[in-house]
Amino acid sequence: MTHPLPDASFTVVPDGVDALADELGALAAELTEDAENTRSAAASLRGALGGADGWVAGAAATAWAGLYEVVAARTRALGRTLAGAAAAYRTEDAALAGRRPR
Q1: How far apart are CA 101 and CA 67, in angstroms?
Q2: Quick check: 10 and 19 in contact, CB under 8 A?
Q3: Which residue positions in the chain have pLDDT lower than 70?
């Protein structure tokens, strides 16, 4: 099997990967808060509009809250994955540095 980009190379900057992981964690927290606010608004919509219109508006807002929760969970998971990758890279880098002749 050939490499799709045979001349390509990349450099991993663990601090940069950690910074991205932290940003994703913060974003996930904001999305979780948005989900809570949207769920609260859903209850208000039901009461404010009443009847079928209130139910439909509340159901739509509840669905949006669920979407926020899914995106928050996926964002949080990606951040954890990146943090784990940075840690693994540092561990491997330290192990390789320890094997070098001095």
Answers
A1: 53
A2: no
A3: 1-4, 100-102
